[in-house]
Amino acid sequence: MYLGDMSFGALSGVPNAAIARAADLTGIMAGTGEGGLLKEVAECSRITVQWASARFGVDANSLTKGQAVVIKIGQGAKPGIGGHLPGVKVTTPISETRRIPVGTDAISPAPHHDIYSIEDLGQRILALKEATRKPVFVKVGATNYIPYIASGVARMGAAGIIIDGAGAGTGAAPSVVKNNVGVPIELAIASVDSILRREGLRDDFTVIAAGRVGCPEDSVKLIALGADMTSLGTGALLAIGCLMVHKCHLGFCPAILTNRISDNPVRTLSFDQSVTWLANMVRGWTEEMRLIMEAIGVSSIADLRSRRELLFHNGSMNPETLGILGVDSKQERGSGGQAATSRAPPLAANLWDPSRSTTLWELAGTTGKSPGEAQISSMGSIGPPFIDTPSRLSDWVVVDGAQVTRPSIDPYREQIEIVNYLAQGKVRLAAPFFFTHLPEGVPDEVRSIFARTASAMGLLYDDSAGRLGEGPHPERLIAPEGAQGRGRAISVVRMSAQASGAAPAEGAGGRWPLYLRIPSSTAALEWVRSNLRLLDAYHGFIVDEDDDESDLQLELSVSKLERDLIEKDARWRYDILAEGNMVRGSEDIVKLLAMGADCVGFGKAALVAVGFEDDQEVVLDLERLAEHLENLVVAFVKDIKLLAGAAGMSSVASSLVGNKEILRTVCLDPSIRRELGIKPAGAA
Amino acid sequence: MAEYPTYDATYGQPIYKDGCGIFGVIRKSGASKVSNLDTLTGISCIKYRGSEFGAGFALFDPSLSGGGKTHRIKAFVRNQDIAGSIGDQLSANVSSPRDVQLQMPAPRSGFQRFGIWQADVSASDNATLERTIDAINGGLLSDGKIDGRVFSYGRYLDVFKEVGFPLEVAKEYHLDADSRKADAWIAHTRQPTNSPGRYPIWSHPFASMDTAIAHNGDISSFGANLEQLNSWGLRSHVGTDSEVIARLLDHLVRVEGLSLLESATLLTNPFERQFSPEVRRLLIRYRGARLDGPFAVVAGFCDGEDTYLLALTDRSKFRPLLVGEDEGRFYVASEENQIRNLSKDAVVWAPEPGSFFLASVKKGMLEPGTRRKIQPFRSGGGPGGTVPPRDAQAPSAAAVLDASGVGFSEVNEFLRRSHRAGDESVRIENVSGQRYIGIGFSTRQNDGTRRRFRVVLSGYPGNCLANLNDGVSYEVYGNVADDLADTMHAGSVVVHGSARDVAGQTLQGGHIFVRGSVGNRVAIQMREYKQAKPFFIVGETADDYLGEYMAGGVLAVLNLSGSDRPVGKFAATGLVGGTIYIRGEVDPAQLGLPPSPEDVLAYLRAGVTDGKLSKDAFEAVSKLRYPGESDLAPLLPPPLMARVRFLFFTSKYTKPLLSEYRHLNAADLDALGGALESFFHAFNLPQSLLESVLASKFTVLKAGEHKHATRIPPQEVPVEE
After folding, report:
1. Domains, chain A, ranges and CATH?
2. Which residue, A184, B80, B301, B632, shows the most beta carbons closer than 10 Å to its own?
3. Mean pLDDT on A415-419
4. Residue B646 contacts A where some CB pair is shorter than 8 Å
């Protein structure tokens, strides 16, 4: 067992010391995180010392205090994002160990700026070995290329790797990253173990599995999948009183574990009691592991490692996923849920649960204290498909985080371009999204605010119903069908109109780019495929999921349309705009972009964010509504930059659009997965 | 055969990633052709960047193809039958292969060996040949099997690659004796991140018709680039981002008709603000050809008339890349010692981020990769470098080590031994690329006092010099490589030359003086602690992200030669403490993370429509060179300015950047003056120059306070959510 890598600062001192001491008492190992070593921790022997991207609290002396050095490349909660100690927790003692001003957010650089590739990592491993004469481990978040990264780490002379799975606990992380980046630890471990064996690198190399290790059974299963050890972070905190308030980043932990450190603490955690609890937990845990092992006739950890034939599944996983895990599909016991197989658009009723609404409110500043910022949250993810029930296909899809082979990019402090051009450069979009047509019943003055915000923020508003006329802000409107009014950005022809006739009349779009609006349906895609030669006059397609004729989720129609266009070498000529009121937020936008959309339209999500109720007829404060909408735009921009940056992309238009390689599916029905053209998580 | 090679395509195009070292060389007009041995020297000396898993060479020369119709086809083949089928397909679709050779290799344990098949064919139509090769390759990598790969089919190039270190591969192809001469060469040593590394099909260079490249990095836009190739009808991919680059470059030039300059611009993917409308049109049209993520690429190309050498670096310059020039040649390399081993006195420079170097035999240097004047700062002296260095006055060293051919552990052992022996000053001569020199060295005694320990290095130390330095004084006569003095706590480093990328990361005590220029991301995360206040002074210029995340200390860029761009883009982003002094005026668009002017103007235009801003004020704003925060403030009504600041210029998690362009005041002189005097003394620069520096105007950068600034709540009172 390894008690994982929680820093002094993320934890408030006593827990750090207690974890290190408990490791000494029970003969396991404890990682110390990036915040420097407390005297009480440095005195313990069974610790590792972390070398992270900000180098907080390390010098030639402190690096030699542990059994090993851990190079922290990433963590499961946020692969591709640096450690974050919120400014509220940077008090004088923390300021002194980390050497940054009091009250400043300590955001470690997203990558190590001396490690942008595998040979750079090799250089740093060798450098740290030369400096300390200690073994060096590398900690990474589990992402798309994890088996490759593990074999690279092994080849570079590391003693082992700590692999932290998706959705793991954290003291502070952007929610959008925590809920959407990385692959589950089980798939990662199985895949890593297979590749390391194939390459002859498995011997003398330690694989530590971390992230959502919640009980001794998890440890046993992960070792049977191929790990040598498992690491607990959240588990250790629960043992000493964590109540799962999920507010570590605010600094007032009711269990006094992650509260901010002050010179004059009113309450402190009992060190002795904590050590006892932790030691008990470790002993109980190992005892239970022994019981399980006894029951299955395994006499040692070495004997358990990579014994996948001991594992059974409960029917909820498809054969493909079982294949990656190396679990025999015939070994089935119990029963579990079934993977979604629906291709049809999702049901609106399932989409707007309270946690999603709260997130949107916070982004817009309708509630909360950080308008226009990505939401920060603590502890593990509760998002789909892991905890929450998936409600649309994008919920089965995760995004890559750059680890080792390329640097992630830090959107707080580095340039990530999200501008996109439509119609061969005629329309500049400040961000790769726009406002779709709003549902019936939304008053016109609210629509006007959307049009105005589209204009102010360099976006588009789809006025397909023609409710706004010319209005004061016509220059950023997608015109209603047939309208060729003054100064609209984009003209549109509905597919039904086009399907019945020949090519559009000469100059159908007037001075403005012309788009064909199609339902998100199999029939529409089929029609486009066979009639592309009629469509020379168009600049692209608007795929509308809300159309009555839609029978496909946007994820599928966008993927297929993009593939069809590529096949005919026509992708460069046509833009793909994907829109629908069931696009829920920035993560859906990013995934649809990667599936092939040039920009993505959402509406209902924005109405939810600004607190507009479905049956509301009168809006009192339009000014405030406009402000909240602007905040939401800025927050979505930051979310998108966080996801793009985590994947190591500095340009959305050139690198993210149509880049399915940065996506992976988790347990999605293989037939849908193939239609999407995305690889399964854990596959190399 | 022990193991049947597999190519697992169960889930779609498999991807293989690697890191490495690269090298390129081209002769100048009138100079003699370049021997394979020079190329071998250039790549072998960085063997440590690569592995036994692959290396290769490519040569480029117009004399290779008679009349431009003869293509040399080279392929890896699993057995004789495969070779036969390649020949058959070429006969059927292109023309009959001539001078066919097949060399089956000696078996090597643990490695899947492939035969190398070679033949010449005449092709009148390049498109047909390319389609045929793509189809052959599609058949060779299918059904999960690796039967081989056609890896070269050009007229004016020849590719030699295999599994092994560079020297082993050279032997395989008899390139270890002076056997081949050409206009230009590129070479590669491979470090596979992922497996399998035992098959030669993933070795570099990758060739596409008359273009070949060697690449160091990992392209994050890979998936999008692959779609671009698919839409051009290219379907068989070996699975590395490197092959994709070769095919993109070849197609852009040969099929799409773009010039090499246009193609290189496109591939390097410049930021929106750096390009003209014409370039923007290209970038949109060929979006799928733009590269993102880390790369340093060296490419060769020959069209039968002229031979070209091209080197590209990504927009953030995440991979090392250097260019060198001497009387007869240009060089491209990952590390300086590669060039120095061939040409001791070459002028060596680092291309700027997102740029490229291009030279041809006939036309000479077409693009240097930097807009700054290229000049060496090898030793002391003012602009022009006529004043001798203070070297002569250095105290005599107690011990001297000749580092020629000596590994880094031996160098460090020498330092430890000398320190233990009580030496105060030691000298290491002929340093040539050794990494980790002095890592983790502390002069602190058990009683807490420090002992003086001075290390004088002459030559070109490799990466990670003086990392974790705790009290040693280093003086380097030569340029230093990347990652100088990472996490240095005390002591000093004085460089009588230039330093490359990421020098002085998390510097938190002591000082670093660099006479010449520094690269990207210098003095990032510099910080101070109580009395320990670090200084970093640069004599000339710095590239992008200078002082990123800086939290303390003093950083100065003196721009002694008066470049019009003393620093690159994104200076001081995320700065939360400390001060940066840049001599001369810096465009506000180069400071911090500035928003796009288009975005700010669109917002203000809407403000005009909403009646929040007068038309006159908007006119005034649109006339600004760049709508920076300080220029906007006097022009906008305060509520609108507050909103603009919130939406475009600030974030809760960073501090606003304060920038002033002014003369140094008493407080500045107090902070900086002493260090400047030491700097001028260390490099023996004239007093008059110091006086003129002190009298100049500086761009002074500091962290401002923030309306977002997190107020620390009273103890134990929950923050309201």
Report:
1. 2-306 (3.20.20.70), 390-680 (3.20.20.70)
2. B301
3. 95
4. yes
Across the range A364-381, mean pLDDT stands at 94
According to DSSP, the β-strands at B157-162 and B55-60 are antiparallel
When CB atoms are compared, the residue of A410, A424, A452 closest to B284 is: A424
Which residue type does B507 have?
L
Comparing CB atoms, the residue among B18, B217, B292 nearest residue A649 is B292
**In A, which residues are within 8 Å of B315 by CB distance?**
650
| Residue owning tokens 């995340």 | B549
B608 close contact with A: CB closer than 8 A:
no
Does the pLDDT value for residue A435 go beyond 70?
A: yes
B78 and B187 in one domain? Answer: yes
Q: Which of A302, A251, A292 is nearest to A85 (CA)?
A: A251
Residue A676 has, within 13 A of its CA and on its CB side, a CA count of 32
**How would you class B99 by CB atoms within 10 Å of its CB: exposed for 0-12, middle for 13-18, buried for 19 or more?**
exposed
The CATH number for B518's domain is: 2.160.20.60
Whether the CB-CB separation of B295 and B215 falls below 8 Å is answered with yes
**Nearest C-alpha in B relative to A59:** B468
Whether residue B667 sits in one domain with residue B651: no
Please give the residue of chain B at the shortest CA–CA distance from A472. Answer: B609
Binary contact (A456, B606; C-beta < 8 A): yes
Q: Are B161 and B246 in contact (CB under 8 A)?
A: no
Would B382 be classed as within a structural domain? no
Closest to A477 in 3D by CA, of A510, A453, A498: A453
Based on the fold, state whether residues B603 and B648 are members of the same structural domain: yes
pLDDT digits (tens, 9 = 90+) for B241-265: 899 999 999 999 999 999 999 999 9
Question: Chain B residue closest to A572 (CA)?
Answer: B285
Among chain A residues, CA nearest to B280: A425
- Give the residue among A116, A211, A220 at the shortest CA–CA distance from A173: A211
Domain count, chain B: 3
A25 vs chain B: nearest CA distance in angstroms?
Answer: 30
Query: Span B5-16, mean pLDDT?
Result: 67
A493, A534 Cβ separation under 8 angstroms: no
What percent of chain A lies above the pLDDT cut of 90? 76
- Contact B476/B494 with Cβ under 8 angstroms? yes
* Min distance B407 CA to chain A CA atoms (Å): 12
Task: Please state, in angstroms and rounded to a whole number, the distance separating the CA atoms of residues A671 and A676.
Answer: 9
Full domain range(s) for residue B537: 498-591+663-703
What's the CA gap between B407 and B432, in Å, rounded?
10
The reply to whether B169 and B251 lie within a common domain is: yes
Weakest mean pLDDT among A478-487, B44-53, B385-394, B701-710:
B385-394
CB contact under 8 A, B652 and A370: yes
Q: What are the C-alpha distances in Å from A4 to residues A98, A162, A214, A275, B485?
A: 20, 9, 13, 16, 30
pLDDT of residue A487: 57
Model confidence at B192: pLDDT above 90: no
pLDDT in tens, B122-141: 998 999 999 999 999 999 99
| Domain harbouring B195, CATH code | 3.60.20.10
Who among A87, A199, A247 is closest to B710 (CB)? A87
Q: Is the pLDDT of residue B66 over 80?
A: no
B508 touches chain A (CB under 8 A): yes
* Nearest CB neighbour to A148, from listed B17, B221, B525: B17
- B383, pLDDT greater than 60: no
Query: Do B165 and B101 fall into the same domain?
Result: yes
